[in-house]
Amino acid sequence: MLMKIASFNVNGVNGRLSALLRWLAEADPDVVCLQELKAAQEKFPIREINDAGYGAIWHGQKSWNGVAILARGTEPIETRRGLPGNPGDSHSRYIEAAVQGVLIGCLYLPNGNPAPGAKFDYKLDWFKRLTAYAAELLTLEVPVALVGDYNVMPTDLDVYKPERWRDDALFRPEVRQAFHALVAQGWTDAVRALHPDERIYTFWDYFRNAWGRNAGLRLDHVLLSPELAPRLIAAGVDREVRGWEKASDHAPVWVELG
């Protein structure tokens, strides 16, 4: 059975709802992980999402963060809300659900700037918690996809001018090493697996004409467990969405599974 899973950092789900609904209609994904809802729990536009043909679960937070999982024609079965390992962490950055036999983890990893500093330490700690939990998921030996905005460019191919980003929290060696350590558990970076040598971006800043200059970053990733990776048949970025009216600074990234 074909299945299309996508990730989209919407950068404000209500302010950019028209673009989200247009993309849902055009791309027709089966499962969508949203990040940066920037909406309180009661402000999530569930009616409009339902009208578009999707069931949803979401973990909102006023003004900041927020994650959601949408499923076309069905209701996601929530399995976790919040990443384990720090009960005091109030950020809405992780939600998980079972959809069509696949366990979907939707995540929004911290930005971490300025680095070094407390925000960078929080990012590295969150990454450690994610890595520990991802190892637990692998022991289940079931199809799992960890989908979202990881706020890391894993390699030089994922950033338009690597030399300018060496000290940024998105590209510092500690962060790239954390991402590679996560993947090394047995996960497949789906986009890079199918496009090993291609310069691919999922984010273009609003400033300095980044979109017009194609000065982008690949921040959004889909990691597939060993049980799911053999089903991978296609992956890409709907980069044209970044050029729409009221666009997010991210474009949707997607994978197709056979």
TrEMBL record:
Pinpoint the site Interaction with DNA substrate. Answer: 250
Q: Which domain of life is it from?
A: Bacteria
Binding positions for Mg(2+) per the UniProt entry: 9, 36, 149, 151, 249-250
Stretches assigned to the Endonuclease/exonuclease/phosphatase domain: 6-250
Q: GO biological process: what's one of them?
A: DNA repair
Q: Which Pfam families match?
A: Exo_endo_phos (PF03372)
Q: Kindly list the residues the record flags as site (Important for catalytic activity).
A: 220
Keywords, A to Z, come to:
Hydrolase, Magnesium, Manganese, Metal-binding
Matching Gene3D superfamilies, A to Z? Endonuclease/exonuclease/phosphatase
Entries under CDD domains matching the protein: ExoIII-like_AP-endo (cd09086)
- Cofactor info, note text: Probably binds two magnesium or manganese ions per subunit.
Obligatory cofactor(s):
Mg(2+); Mn(2+)
Keyword rRNA-binding tagged: no
Spell out the InterPro entries in the cross-references. Answer: AP_endonuc_1, AP_endonuclease_F1_BS, AP_endonuclease_F1_CS, Endo/exonu/phosph_ase_sf, Endo/exonuclease/phosphatase, ExoIII-like
Marked site positions, Transition state stabilizer: 151
Q: Active site at which residues?
A: 108, 149 (proton donor/acceptor), 250 (proton acceptor)
An MF annotation (GO) of this entry: endonuclease activity
The family assignment reads: Belongs to the DNA repair enzymes AP/ExoA family.
What name has this protein been given in UniProt?
Exodeoxyribonuclease III
Q: Which organism is it from?
A: Agaricicola taiwanensis
Q: What is the lineage of its organism?
A: Bacteria, Pseudomonadati, Pseudomonadota, Alphaproteobacteria, Rhodobacterales
